[in-house]
């Protein structure tokens, strides 16, 4: 293994040393050991789907299903025993851990990648970049026209993820500083839906994981820094967060769940993460 992503490898362990180290041990909780059920984040969904497709090709007898109901619902599914893996674009909340422990579930996190939250606009928008403060002002309703931030005289159509989304909660912390969004903000259920809304609406602004950026939308610089592998990995890009897979206890060594959950540590897993557009934690 060549190196760890400099900024994030230490940051995650410092933030959550108990639940991210893999110290907890438990038997494989899957009722059918040839079946793995994944539920949670739409941001982490592409990683989970790529891993599932690769793993089932290598192991034809294994069935893996991936649902994308949001990070919060993924946590609930893990606690309620309806999934084996909760994919989450934020860390579990204290109350989610408390509920899990009360139900005999021991959440263990596996930090699989790092993501930059990109602020995107319609390709025709001439604005090249914003500051974090300007983005916050747009979402609180203090700025309502693009001409207030160097753009055309046009109303800003503000799009956000729904409140059950881990991306929403990361944005709320990293950008909004817990300030309330304006009543005019439109909420959608996935990163793909934000991209679709922005690419079809000239005055729109939204935010998505960098894995969801493409030529159909324009990605803005934030504080004069463009989100990409280098700026996210180094910690220079200001709106970034780790991505997680959570299991109930540490999967039993030799089980399919163990092999699947550790794909992110392999060269192939890292190649898949990078191909999707996210930043792997380590490089071979």
Could you characterize what this model shows?
With 284 residues, the chain is of the alpha/beta class. It folds into 2 domains: 3-114 and 242-283, D-Maltodextrin-Binding Protein, domain 2 (3-Layer(aba) Sandwich); 115-234, D-Maltodextrin-Binding Protein, domain 2. The protein contains 11 helices and 14 strands. The chain has helices at 6-15, 17-20, 45-58, 71-80, 94-102, 132-140, 166-174, 191-199, 229-234, 256-261, 267-276; strands spanning 3-4, 35-40, 63-67, 85-88, 107-121, 129-130, 157-161, 186-188, 204-209, 218-219, 221-222, 240-248, 279-280, 282-283. Strands 2, 3, 4, 5, 7, 8, 9, 10, 12 and 13 form a 10-stranded mixed β-sheet that branches. The protein has a two-stranded antiparallel ribbon with strand order 1-14. 46% of the residues are buried. Mean pLDDT is 89; it is low at 6-19 and 21-30.
Give the gist of this structure.
The protein is of the alpha/beta class.
Query: What's the total count of β strands?
Result: 14
CATH class of the largest domain reads: Alpha Beta
Helix tally equals 11
Give the helix level as a range of percent: 25-40%
The name CATH uses for the topology of the largest domain is: D-Maltodextrin-Binding Protein, domain 2
**Molecular shape:** globular
Span of the ends, CA to CA = 5 Å
Name the beta content range. Answer: 15-25%
Architecture of the largest domain, CATH level 2? 3-Layer(aba) Sandwich
Element order: H for helix, E for strand: EHHEHEHEHEEHEHEHEEEHEHHEE
